[in-house]
Design a protein that fits this description.
- With about 100 residues, the chain is of the alpha+beta class.
- The strands form two sheets. Strands 1-3-2 form a three-stranded antiparallel beta sheet. A two-stranded antiparallel ribbon has the order 4-5.
- The protein has one domain: Winged helix-like DNA-binding domain superfamily/Winged helix DNA-binding domain (Arc Repressor Mutant, subunit A).
- The protein is about 45% helix and about 20% strand.
Length: about 100
């Protein structure tokens, strides 16, 4: 039961649902998620932490970059998010010098 409550709390914020939609079927760097959402890095970091605690996302380090993906096997979250609106596609190129995504 605690697992269900944790997932429900994680999905109770629109920005966290947006993050899950952005990560649907792909892996992104945290900086790309920040750019797509247009939120402060500390805010996105907190949202990612809550999603990771609920085991809705996985992460890995690649050099100095932190990459995030959707966790497999979370059908309840997928059912809720799958009916949501389309999110913008991820940037195809990220410039570390300007910290900007480019389509």
């Amino acid at each position: 039961m605690r697992d269900v409550v944790t997932i429900a709390k994680a999905l109770s914020n629109e920005n966290r649902v947006r993050i899950l939609a952005i990560l649907e079927g792909r892996e992104l760097c945290v900086c790309q998620v920040i750019e797509l959402l247009g939120l402060a890095p500390s805010t996105v970091s907190k949202h990612l932490s809550i999603l990771k605690q609920a085991r809705l996302i996985d992460g890995r380090k690649q050099g100095r970059w932190s990459r995030k993906t959707r966790s497999a096997g979370r059908s309840m979250a997928s059912a809720v998010i799958g009916s949501g609106r389309k999110m913008p596609s991820a940037c195809s190129t990220f410039s570390p010098s300007t910290r900007r995504c480019y389509a």
